[in-house]
Amino acid sequence: MKDQNITGTDRSTSRNGAFPPGFLWGAATSAYQIEGSPLADGAGPSTWHRFSHTPGRTHEGETGDVACDHYRRWEADLEIMSELGLGAYRFSISWSRVLPQGTGKVNEKGLDFYRRLVDGLLARNIVPCVTLYHWDLPAALDDRGGWLNPDIAGWFADYCAVIARALSDRVSMFATINEPWVVADAGYLFGVHAPGHANRYEFPIAVHQLLRAHGAGVQALRTNGAKEVGLVVNLEPKYPASNAVADLDAAERADHYMNRLFLDPALRGHYPERLDEIFGDAWPHARADLSTVQTELDFLGINYYTRSVVKDDPSAYPTGARPVGQTRAAHMTTGWEVYPDALTRVLTWVTERYGRLPLYITENGAAFYDPPCAEEGRVSDPLRCANYRSHITAVRRAIEEGADVRGYFAWSLLDNYEWAAGYSMRFGIVHVDFATQERTIKDSGHLYREIIASHGGILDGDSSA
Ligand code: BGC
């Protein structure tokens, strides 16, 4: 992405806001969270299929077997996207639908699903934004060591090549990996996500292989025709709980561990300095070769949900920085603080540290309890509405402060399968009744439609970010 937007068109009706022409308004989802039918048409199982079918791993044993049934209802979902006026749709591809064994023979039926989806998006003038890996590793590859096996960079590159060959004539924007930090932290250090390992010696290995796979994936995508290639990271600014030196230091460690762990290697070619200290003998990467990892990206996707305030506490694993003040508010299912200022900060921080590269907010949103609504056919979600207003205003402020933000994607289009939390958390701007699969655009969805139609203009006067 150089100077122009990837659509080349401006679907907005007004340019009142400070959002640049061509700024992309989208919504995001991921394969395992919405598709259902995980084994249909020759697909192989993923690690999430196995994990969710293992007793005790997810909220009430819930799985993605049905989820939003999007694999079968995708056309109706495209109609909803049109109704919302989305300019872009970010979705991920299930690796094991396309390559049931993770490598080798392509399952054309699986690939056809994404071909149809892309064609349906283009027919509706919605820009498809593809994420190659959003956490659902083919189980067959996990059997071979998954993210711990150095061969995974090659496996991932081959998969990227298959997808780019199939789609790059119609898809401009490809992201390699969604939130690699979560893959390593939740999947290999704490064991709360697939594949469920809790091992401080595996964490550094997984980190390194995720980075090598990203680097190899970028090359494979470009070689096979992808025009815009990026990475998606989740960033969460770390604020010290006080001005005490120990707390300032704890916030820095937490920042290196989470916010810099993938960006420093991917964009600057070195690991953050404090990882050695955090992992001690478990961190083998002091002189790691990152020459295949560091590469110029066409864009960086940032997922932002909250900040964290931390204090020094040597017992807090693994960084010695303990988050404070994140008690679960009654109206919130996640316990995440609503703090839009940190979104502005994230965008300006990335711009200062890594240079003025094109940025997208590839996810932003919140899970609230949607209050019951007396009116038939309406889902009133005032807290989510306020959340969107304040966060999109925070993005606008970052643009005014010099960040090159090219688009914003609401997380999520649909209420969906929230990983280990199952169906207990609703992030959608469209309500899904999981018993009937009925979809209802929430008030936040209607608000977002107005924001899109006015190109952010209806937020004029909002300064509460
Ligand atoms: C992930 C999504 C997830 C969302 C809300 C992000 O970390 O990419 O898959 O649903 O956050 O937790």
TrEMBL record:
It holds the Pfam family Glyco_hydro_1. The active site is at E179 (proton donor), E363 (nucleophile). GO terms for biological process: cellulose catabolic process. Keywords: Carbohydrate metabolism, Cellulose degradation, Glycosidase, Hydrolase, Polysaccharide degradation. InterPro entries: GH, GH_1_N_CS, Glyco_hydro_1, Glyco_hydro_1_AS, Glyco_hydro_1_beta-glucosidase. One of its GO terms (cellular component) is cytosol. It catalyses: Hydrolysis of terminal, non-reducing beta-D-glucosyl residues with release of beta-D-glucose. GO terms for molecular function: beta-glucosidase activity. Substrate binds at Q33, H134, N178, Y305, W411, E418, W419. Gene3D superfamilies: Glycosidases. Its EC number is 3.2.1.21. NCBIfam families: BGL. Belongs to the glycosyl hydrolase 1 family. This is Beta-glucosidase. It comes from Eiseniibacteriota bacterium.
